[in-house]
Amino acid sequence: MIWTLKLITLAFLLLLGGQYNTFALQDVTADLFGPGNYGTVAAFGDFNSDKQTDIFTIKEQTDLVIFLADSKPPYFKPKVQAKNILGKNITSVVPGDYDGDSQMDVLLTAKNGQETEVFIFWGHNQTLGTALIVIYLQMLPCRHRKKPYPGQVANGDGYQDHLLPACLDKSCQRSTIYLAKSGSRDSKWIPVLSDFKRKETVWGFVPDNSSQPPALHLGDYNLDGFPDALVVLQNKSGSGQQAFLLENVPCNSDTCHSVGRMFHIHWDQSDLGAIQNAVRATFFDIYEDGILDMLVQSKAEGKQDLRIHALKNNFEADAYFVKVMGKGLICQPFGVNQPGPYVKYTTVDSNGYLKNASAGQLSQSAYFSLQLPYTVLGLGRSANFLDHLFVGIPRQPGETEIRNKEWTAIIPNSQLIVMPFPHDTPRSWSAKLYLTPSNSVLLTAIALIGVCVFILVIIGILHWQEKKADDREKRQEAHRFHFDAM
């Protein structure tokens, strides 16, 4: 009886507590990689076409190792390995289907003096076949320019914005992040984060080098509909480097008033802060549940390879998402993850206001951009159906007709796999919808089971008491009959 009441109380407390956001990270590196958590994460893609995202890594600068997703620990196993595949150092990995056979190939680049060699290894039955040398590229002098990131919607107006991480001096003592608002006639860059000072310590971007310029990796970690970012910063008072989470919050400064949003640095993330000498950090949906986790790479003492850290996002809130993956080829409806799809949705939030968001898929693949082969769009605390979901792909040069298709009444917490085939006939495109139950469903089921058990216990107690009363009455009747007979 007591434990039943405790169970019901706990279930209702969890159900009520789910209304408030909680965010914590959990180190799950051992569960994912076991002892083999070394190497440089270079790209993501579904190599074996099982709808699970695999991880492409470079080991010892010359070996290509593909960690395939598995249902048993360790959840990523190095099942495809090619040692010294080029006979020289690998500088970039670009998964894709380059021959139209619905199997993922791998494009590799290697530096040969001032030239860059490009190789393509043909995928065949989850293995890598022979290589084809495509082209030699001449390396041009660096102009020290930072490339804008055409990421997700930064201010929630439904249009793509450009983010630019920049250093205002050579040592990056003064760092900032600019945003170019889409649709504006002037090309003014608006600072959305310029305060990199924590108490008396100054942080900033790692000074630019040929291997890894300052980079932002975007993802909606709290599913509020606004993209957040992961970035590696350097302690300018010392020499340490750490990964930090930049949360997209409402603007509280005059400099970003025109866009309405800004980034806020989470300085007190102990799990991220425990990873010293961080080099690269990105979002990754480890468990394919629509919640973005984190992969952080750091320098390991005495090792040439980077160490891989996997952090699970234990985010619990009454928030929803939609996950969209674009697949397809020119000649076949099924295939590998397609670069370039554009996703946009419109819905109504819990207050009745119109809400828009959009994002692109795989706008860049090479040189450790670490973009995900799918798009996760947060819906906030609105459990309404998506009124309109648009998916489009790039059109051929010279075409004027837009290639996109609209789907209506999409269920929240679902994954939509879109096959845009044929490319020039959007009305023939198809989609597969997969549902991901919310935590509220589990909590509701626990509460319902607890109530049923509680009712059954009460019924059992009442039945037992009634049976005892019947037995007592029968004994009294038998006793009374005995004395009457005498």
TrEMBL record:
Positions of transmembrane segments: 441-464
One annotated Gene Ontology cellular component of this protein: plasma membrane
SUPFAM superfamilies associated with the record: Integrin alpha N-terminal domain (SSF69318)
Localisation per UniProt entry: Membrane
Keyword Lipoprotein: no
Superkingdom: Eukaryota
Keywords recorded for this protein, A-Z: Glycoprotein, Membrane, Signal, Transmembrane, Transmembrane helix
Domain T-cell immunomodulatory protein TIP C2: 333-434
Mode of membrane association: Single-pass type I membrane protein
Pfam (any one): FG-GAP_3
InterPro entries, sorted: C2_TIP (IPR057089), FG-GAP (IPR013517), Integrin_alpha_N (IPR028994), Tip (IPR024881)
Extent of the signal sequence: 1-24
Similarity comment text for this entry: Belongs to the TIP family.
Protein name: T-cell immunomodulatory protein TIP C2 domain-containing protein
Gene source species: Astatotilapia calliptera (Eastern happy)
Encoding gene per record: ITFG1
